[in-house]
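Sequence, please.
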């Protein structure tokens, strides 16, 4: 692939989003999350990044996801949010920070959570 794009990531990033994602996923070791990280943060194209942190928040908030695959969770955001690279990057970073500091896998700090009013899991945990 290096030869195909003359060793220049700008040439790779210039291709259309679906083809770019397909090419990235064809590289050994690059999965969906990594491909979407590259697309969003390096190529500056809209592809919402799903990771364990974001998925944990979605599940604890009880948001309905049609399916259990990466793309099912991704579609939840992409179908409801305006396609905006900068906002998606910031939103993803905020979700990750919330999950890492408050909505932790073990011993979440539900009483301190800014999303408590929206979170059935947190409300159950503090009652």
């Amino acid at each position: 692939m290096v030869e195909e794009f003359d060793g220049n990531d700008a040439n790779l990033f210039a291709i259309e989003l679906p083809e770019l994602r397909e090419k990235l996923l064809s590289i050994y070791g690059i999965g969906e999350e990594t491909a979407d990280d590259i697309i969003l943060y390096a190529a500056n194209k809209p592809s919402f990044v799903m990771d364990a942190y974001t998925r944990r928040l979605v599940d604890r908030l009880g948001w309905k996801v049609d399916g259990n695959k990466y793309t099912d969770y991704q579609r939840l955001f992409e179908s409801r949010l305006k396609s905006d690279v900068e906002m998606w990057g910031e939103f993803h970073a905020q979700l990750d920070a919330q999950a890492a500091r408050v909505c932790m896998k073990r011993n979440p700090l539900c009483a301190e959570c800014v999303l408590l009013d929206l979170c059935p899991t947190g409300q159950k945990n503090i009652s």
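The longest helix spans residues 85-101.
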